[in-house]
TrEMBL record:
Native species: Paeniglutamicibacter gangotriensis
InterPro entries: MFS (IPR011701), MFS_dom (IPR020846), MFS_trans_sf (IPR036259)
Membrane spanning stretches: 27-50, 56-79, 100-119, 125-143
Domain Major facilitator superfamily (MFS) profile: 1-162
Broad class of where this protein is predominantly found: membrane
Gene Ontology cellular-component terms listed: plasma membrane
Name recorded for this polypeptide: MFS transporter
GO MF annotations, alphabetized: transmembrane transporter activity
Alphabetical keyword list: Membrane, Transmembrane, Transmembrane helix
Domain of life: Bacteria
Membrane topology label: Multi-pass membrane protein
Subcellular location(s) of the protein: Cell membrane
């Protein structure tokens, strides 16, 4: 876990720079791509050529670092964009809604994962997760067709009465 923590420090230090260069949507896509790559590593023992422990460790340990880099890229981009585009009076509500939208699916996926790991090999689950996360990454990387704006204009505050 210390490798993932070190990756998170690097990801946190580079997230703002990445967002300025590629935009928040693509920064999320790159973070997801890092996590997808990291999800493939635990399943590498399915390949006959990577049966030795040394080779597996040489693949899994750097993947933990990559996952650590990807997580801050995703969340810094998400929270920064939410704060920039949400009127000041609605910041609390937007933060609460974001937490709900992120935490409920995570809770459901933990329960589903606990059930599935009892029925099938964890390596197959990791490959499945890598496929789903890769599709999400591709969606974020290819789906943003508008040119990147360096500083998005804040959303108008429609709750104020004139």
């Amino acid at each position: 876990m210390s490798l993932q923590g070190a990756g998170s420090i690097l990801g946190g230090l580079t997230a703002a720079m990445l967002m300025r260069r590629v935009g928040p949507g693509r920064a999320v896509g790159l973070g997801l791509a890092m996590i997808a790559l990291a999800s493939i590593a635990p399943a590498a023992s399915l390949l006959p050529a990577l049966v030795s422990t040394e080779l597996l460790l040489a693949l899994v340990l750097p993947s933990l670092f990559l996952a650590g880099v990807g997580v801050p890229w995703i969340f810094v981009s998400l929270v920064t964009t939410r704060q920039r585009l949400t009127p000041a009076r609605l910041q609390g509500r937007a933060a609460a809604a974001t937490n709900l939208v992120l935490n409920v699916p995570q809770l459901v996926s933990i329960a589903a994962g606990a059930l599935l790991v009892g029925m099938m090999d964890y390596r197959g689950l990791m490959l499945g997760a890598a496929v789903v996360i890769s599709a999400c990454a591709l969606s974020m990387l290819l789906g943003e067709r508008e040119p990147h704006q360096k500083t998005p204009a804040p959303a108008p505050d429609l709750t104020q009465r004139n």
